[in-house]
Amino acid sequence: MMFLFVLVLSACKENTADEHAHDHGHQGLEPLAYTLYSEKIELFVEFKPLVKGIESKFAAHFTILGEYFIPLTEGKVTVSLIIGEKGIRQSSDQASSPGIFRLSLSPTAAGKGKLVFDIEGPDFIDQIVIDNITVYENEHDAIQDQVESTTGSDISYLKEQAWKVEFANSLVTKQSFHEVLKTDGQILSAPGDEMFVTANSSGNVLFSGNNTIIGTELNAGSQLFSISGGNISEDNVESKYKSAKINYEKAKADYERAGILVKEKIVSEKDFLNYKTAFENAQIVFSSLSESYAGKAQIISSPMSGFVKNILVTEGQYVEAGTPLAVISKNQKLILQANISQRYFNKLPAIESANFRLSGSSEIFDTKSLNGKLISFGKSVSAQSPFIPLSFEINNVGSIIPGSVAEVFLKTSPINDALVIPVSALIEEQGVFFVYVQTGAESFQKREVKLGMDDGMNVHLLSGVQEGERVVSKGANQIKLSSASGSLPAHGHEH
Q1: What is the pLDDT of residues 298-350, one digit of tens each?
Q2: Residue 183 burial class via C-beta count within 10 angstroms: exposed 0-12, middle 13-18, buried 19 and up
């Protein structure tokens, strides 16, 4: 179907003298207000009822949706009025103020039609349509058709206020949720993810510069320590090296000589094999010491790439062979171990994932997003602990520290068609929970809600809000403070 558009002059880019003035009527006409959403944009628009031959001004507020709602400050907006196969349109490529584009249309025909808003942002294109728009033949008909609007006890919170704070709302939908077991837990290093570095001889430990600072990243083979015998006469590193070298050289000479003599039948095959065995043993010992021996000291290197988790000795300390010197960790895999009360033992087989929050942090982690998997849960309790351990293996995203204490939300049996909202939407007052429901673009109702379980991120609503409504998920406290102050800034719309 082809539409005929009559191009109207582009919108005026100059602000009016009073950007916050309200013109609530032209000979009795009250403005209309619409709030619509696409996947990318929230449109809140106010304009006078459309009357044939009379200009109607639009104050169109565009909010970019995301983790936080922000005003559209750059782009081009086109509004089109389509009746049948004919239409008119006007464009504006500059916001009169952040988030607000001012447009106007003068309808050329009466009837039922639709308004189409085409939005071209810096990195997206979108369209929002308002159907069933009436264009009246004259103002008298428009006034007769007006319906008096009432806001009741709704709280007013303007777009200009919301755009200045961290603000967002969420659509209340029915979705699958899970019963939750709340408990505590701890972050542990995964098996095989850590390795001890041990002394391979006795002596005094000397550190190797910055590599022995906790947290330092290492490559496999990076030098960590050296062990020197110093003035110690017994089990001295240097003495052991020299002794091994002498034994090696002697065994090598004996073996080479025996190789000549066995050909002349002067040395028996049995004696030759004994010389060969003695040489090979001496070679192994000498090679082992030579690989890590440098300048009267034995070098201790990192056995794998990772970082220094802990240093277990002090510089200059005397250690025996086999003494642990440091702990090296890859820190790639971690274990989330939760402690579960015995009364929930029958629920353990249903657990597949968990959310958790580290002590002192507000960030919520999800084992699924960390490629986590349940690796085990206890089948009994011990005299030392009445709790059943349950363990997930997870990837370390870099901000999770082994040894941290965690609050754990274990997800068990699914709840189908549950009304779910973000935990951040809740306002608590003396043990009673409330949310702010958005009834219009700039109006909100404070409602008491009854809650089911929460998983740290979202909470199951039992009553207070209906499916399809929107609740303030970020910025609820700002609305609360604004309504408590009893003062609001001048309204920022012009019609």
Answers
A1: 778 888 888 888 889 988 888 888 899 988 887 778 999 999 988 888 888 88
A2: buried
Summarize pLDDT for 64-82 with one digit per residue, the tens. 999 999 999 999 999 999 9
Taking the C-alpha atoms of residue 262 and residue 326, their distance in angstroms, rounded to an integer, is: 50
For residue 491, the SS3 value is coil
User: How many whole angstroms separate alpha carbon 456 and alpha carbon 478?
Assistant: 22
How far apart, in whole angstroms, are the C-alpha atoms of residue 328 and residue 303?
8
pLDDT value at position 256? 78
pTM to 2 decimal places: 0.70
The structural domains of the chain, ordered by start, are 4-155 (2.60.40.1940), 170-188+333-474 (2.40.30.170), 202-321 (1.10.287.470)
Q: For residue 360, which amino acid is it?
A: G
- The percentage of residues in the chain with a pLDDT greater than 70, rounded to a whole number, is 84
Q: What is the pLDDT of residue 2?
A: 40
Round to whole Å and give the CA distance between 115 and 135: 11
Nearest to 170 by CA among 83, 91, 66, 248: 66
Which 3 state secondary structure label does DSSP give 58? strand
Task: Assign residue 486 a region (left: φ > 0; alpha: ψ between -120 and 50; beta: otherwise).
Answer: left
Asked if 305 contacts 224 with a C-beta cutoff of 8 angstroms, the reply is no
